Amino acid sequence: MVDASDGDANRHDISDSASELTRMTDADPQRLAAYYDKWAESYDADLPKMGYDAPMHAAAIMVAQDIAFDAPILDAGCGTGLTGQELARAGYTDLTGIDLSLESLQAAEAKGVYRHLKKRDMNKPLAFGDNGFAAVQCIGTLTYVREKRKLMAEFCRVVKRGGIVSFTHRADLYDDAFVKVLTATTRAGLWEQVSHSDPMPYLPNHKDFGDKTHVFYDVYRVK
After folding, report:
1. Could you tell me the pTM of the whole model?
2. Residue 143 CB: number of other CB atoms within 10 A?
C-alpha cells in the first residue's frame, strides 16, 4: 500500500486506492471487487480531482442518440453510480446498474437514481432477458473484462434491435485484439458502428495516467 503521507506533492489529494489504480489493469474479478469495495467510500470525491468527466460525456451520448428518457438503460459497470447520476440529471428515469463491487453498488443505491442494482461479473452471461434494454453504457470498465467478445454479444442480446451500445476504452488498450472483437461482432451481424471518437482525456490529473493516457468513446447500433 502506498503511504499517502510520503510527501509526494503531485498526489492531487486523492486516496491510496486512487493512487494504486494502475495496478488493477490485469486484476482478476475477486481482487478487483475487493479493490473497489475498499475505494467505494472515497471514490466520488477522488474522481473529480483526477479530472474524470466520462459520465457527463456518456449521458450526452444517450441524449444525442435520441434514447427516450423513459426507456430502460443498462449501466454496465456502474460503480458508485456516477454515470447513472449524470443520466438522471439528463432526464433518464429507468436505469439498471450492474457491478462487481457490493460496496460500490450500495453507494449507487444511495444516489436514488437506479430502478434496479445487481451484482454481476461481466465475464459471465448477464442474466437478463433478450431485448430488455433500449441502450447499454459501459463506461470505464472494459479494461477489466477478459471475455470482451462474449460481453459484446451479450450487450447485443439484451439490447433491442435499433438500440445503442455505448462504451469507452483506453487508447493504450485499444489494440489489434480489441479491434478484432469489434470487427467480429460486426461481421456476425449483431451491430453496426455509429461513431468512434477522437482520443479524449481519461484521468488528466492522475499522477500516473496524466496527459499520456486517453480513451475512445464508441457507439454501436444493434441490428
Report:
1. 0.91
2. 18
CA nearest neighbour of 204 among 82, 55, 56, 52: 52
- If one compares 85 and 213, the residue with the highest pLDDT of the two is 85
Measured between alpha carbons, how far is 53 from 30 in angstroms, rounded to an integer?
Answer: 27
> Which of 39, 48, 31 has its CA nearest to residue 15?
39
Sign of CA dihedral 136, 141, 26, 178: positive
Helix locations, the chain, DSSP H: 16-19, 29-49, 54-64, 82-90, 102-111, 148-158, 176-187
Could you give the 3-state DSSP secondary structure of residue 51?
coil
pLDDT digits (tens, 9 = 90+) for 155-194: 999 999 999 999 999 999 999 999 999 999 999 999 999 9
- Compute φ and ψ for 139, nearest 5 degrees: -110, 120
CA distance 48 to 51: 5
Angle between helices 54-64 and 82-90 (to 10 degrees): 40
Q: How far apart are CA 128 and CA 60, in angstroms?
A: 25
C-beta of residue 191 within 8 angstroms of C-beta of residue 223 = yes
Rounded Cα gap, residues 58 and 76, in angstroms: 12
